Amino acid sequence: MSLRLSTVILPHRRWHEGGRAAWQRAEQLGFHTAYTYDHLSWRSFRDGPWFGAIPTLTAAAGVTERMGLGTLVTSPNFRHPVTLAKELISLDDISGGRITLGIGAGGTGFDATALGQDPWTPRERADRFGEFVPLLDRLLTEDSVSYEGDFYSAHEARNIPGCVQRPRLPFAVAATGPRGLKLTARHGQAWVTTGDPKLFESGTPEQSVHALHGQVEKLADACAAIGRDMDGLDKILLTGFTPDRGRPLESLGAFVDFAGRHQELGFTDIVIHWPIPDSYFAADEKTFEQIAMEALAQLT
């Protein structure tokens, strides 16, 4: 399969002050999908402008025509499956069936406490995620759902007419641990990873490739355990969080080398961050656009 190139556009700009233009330009550049983060606030952007993912994607759907759109990623930290399902069905309809739900277990950042709760332990996050994903799957595929779980409930939740995409919009599940990979194998149409976080500070690109190879092998085992062919599952690498950091965006050649090494591991999609000056995601815009327009031709 040919490699696909997508981007993440952080929701930090007012729509009429550069927000709209970025999504339109992403489609012009030929990106397969443009994602946005689904957070209430995020890291160094916490004290600046930050807008909601679902309204942003709704607006983006109205000013684009072909490009896929999605979250990377949504989590249970401040979402409930019943209300999220209704929003996703609406968004899939508005976009004409162009939505992918990137979804993960969440972390310990600002989202974890914004509603006044104590941060969940890793085990509780995994427990909640294990209930959240199957319930959301049902809500997006069944007209009426009732459910009583340990963390979430639904009482005759109606979701008519359902998604434009059938049987529902695709899930891109972010996971590296055994429980998350099992969820990916059972419910995902794609798998998302950012690499091994333990290598980010002091690891090498070679160590990162080795770690990612191990993650792919574990995903294959999880698929095999339920009789699923892993080849039918897209594999998405969200860049910027491996030891390579921003170096792949320094030149066309650097990106082609980076993407080629990860394509050999079986990745089908590489996602790069839209440049944001004076931030961790700073990059030369001309080089970024050259990568968007020219890189894939050198990787086929």
Note the beta-strand portion. Answer: 15-25%
- The biggest beta sheet, please? 8 strands, parallel, barrel
Main sheet: strand order: 1-2-3-4-7-8-9-10
Series of secondary-structure elements, N-terminal to C-terminal: EHEHEHEHEEEHEHEHEH
What is the average of the pLDDT values? Answer: 97
The beta-strand count equals: 10
**Low-confidence region ranges:** none
Sum up the overall morphology in one term.
Answer: globular
Intertermini distance: 9 Å
Radius of gyration: 19 Å
Helix content: 25-40%
By secondary-structure content and strand pairing, the structural class works out as alpha/beta
Contiguous helical run count: 8
Protein topology:
Blueprint lengths: L3 E5 L10 H10 L4 E4 L16 H11 L4 E7 L6 H14 L4 E5 L18 H20 L2 E5 L4 E6 L12 E4 L3 H10 L2 E4 L11 H21 L8 E5 L13 H12 L5 E5 L11 H10 L6
Parallel strand pairs: 1-2, 1-10, 2-3, 3-4, 4-7, 7-8, 8-9, 9-10
Antiparallel strand pairs: 5-6
Helix pairs in contact: 2-3, 3-4, 4-5, 5-6
